[in-house]
Design brief:
This protein is an alpha/beta fold. It is built from 4 helices and 7 strands. It has a 5-stranded parallel β-sheet. The chain has a two-stranded antiparallel ribbon with strand order 3-4. It is globular. The N terminus is likely disordered.
Length: about 180
């Protein structure tokens, strides 16, 4: 299910999550709008919560841990730089707002390509203009430009990357916050 107008929630937000972050909600909408392209099995790398609207979803993370809004209990324990998946096993790879936290970014992208089957899809996002946001569980290493994405994904033949950016309202809000 997408935006639930009756309950005024997105499916990705647990009930006690509070207001939905606009940036995260935009990513969820982008994934929802492209869900028909996704092939099973779908692996969501770095996910902190389940996306119940994606059929055949399996989450991948390096560890189990608790956050203020979710208990992270991945289906697959693994590092994006050495995924415990066979070559071509994934029909779809989702990796949203995770790659900036991976020290060896180039190795991570090579692993995503390795596990993605021919004709599969990769949905990848990373912030560009965003404050540093490391935690006790991971650092914050990268901001990727459009040219950087093209360079990183130059060897991909069977994956279409669809860039998105914050809409005008979010950019305006970010400008006000940065100015303040």
């Amino acid at each position: 299910m997408a935006w639930n107008a009756e309950r005024k929630i997105y499916p990705m937000a647990p009930p006690d999550y509070g207001p939905v972050d606009y940036h995260r909600a935009q990513i969820e909408r982008w994934l929802w709008d492209n869900r028909e392209l996704m092939r099973i099995p779908t692996y969501d790398i770095g996910a902190e919560f389940r996306r119940d609207y994606i059929v055949g979803l399996k989450t991948v993370n390096t560890q189990e841990y608790d956050t203020p809004y979710a208990q992270v209990r991945p289906d697959v324990l693994g590092d994006v730089t050495k995924l415990p998946l066979a070559d071509g096993e994934a029909g779809t790879v989702i990796c949203t707002e995770t790659l900036e936290h991976v020290p060896n970014l180039f190795r991570a992208v090579m692993e995503i390509k390795r596990v993605l089957r021919p004709g599969g899809w990769a949905f990848l996002t990373s912030p560009f203009i965003w404050p540093t946001h490391d935690t006790e569980h991971y650092g914050d290493y990268w901001r990727i430009t459009e040219q950087g994405w093209r360079f990183l994904l130059a060897d991909f033949e069977t994956v279409q990357v669809m860039p998105i950016e914050m809409r005008r309202a979010a950019r305006s809000l970010w400008g006000h916050i940065a100015t303040w």
